[in-house]
Amino acid sequence: MMNSMFFEKRWDAVMKERASRGLGLLTKQADVIEYQQEELLWQKGLLGDTNPSQLLDTLIFYIGLHLAFRSGKEHRRLRFGSAKEPAQLSLHTDPTSNRRYLLYSEDISKTNPGGLKQRKVKPKSTRAYENVENPRRCIVSLYEKYLKLW
């Protein structure tokens, strides 16, 4: 027990000293995807809904973009629901605007691993509203099409 406390204090001192020198202060960030880059993906046929593979790639792209997924692990853990586990994605309609949206309900993540210390942490809940201006690029419509094919 005593060694553990000593180690924690020593490690804390080392981290503070390194931070004062500027080490470890820069965090990795993903590059922003510009509108022109997304347009190019659509023009080259990498995004779309004309075949199952292309539809899946488009959904993965839009789910990450609109629902703020931070890692590939969140994509891999995404559940569509079963008798034992509820779906993390669900379709809803906003009662005030009458617009449809896709609701993502997080259960576990990098910042909320689900242990005892995190039991009071509120899980992330994110909405992606339908794109009424461009229905072909609407995450809600693409998700509905995917569910019909699934």
Fold blueprint:
Blueprint: H1 2-20, H2 35-43, H3 52-66, H4 72-77, E1 89-93, E2 100-105, E3 125-129, H5 139-149
Helix pairs in contact: 3-5
Radius of gyration (CA) equals 21 Å
Largest sheet, strands/sense/barrel: 3 strands, antiparallel
Low-confidence stretches: none
How do the helices and strands follow one another from N- to C-terminus? HHHHEEEH
Beta-strand content bin:
5-15%
> Structural class per helix/strand content?
alpha+beta
First-residue to last-residue Cα separation: 54 Å
Order of strands in the sheet with most strands = 1-2-3
The count of strands amounts to 3
Helix content: 40-55%
Give me the number of helical elements.
Answer: 5
Rough outline: elongated
The residue-averaged pLDDT reads: 80
Structure overview:
With 150 residues, the chain is α+β, with helices and mostly antiparallel strands. 40% of the residues lie in helices and 11% in strands. A three-stranded antiparallel beta sheet has the order 1-2-3, covered by helices on one side. Helix 3 crosses helix 5.
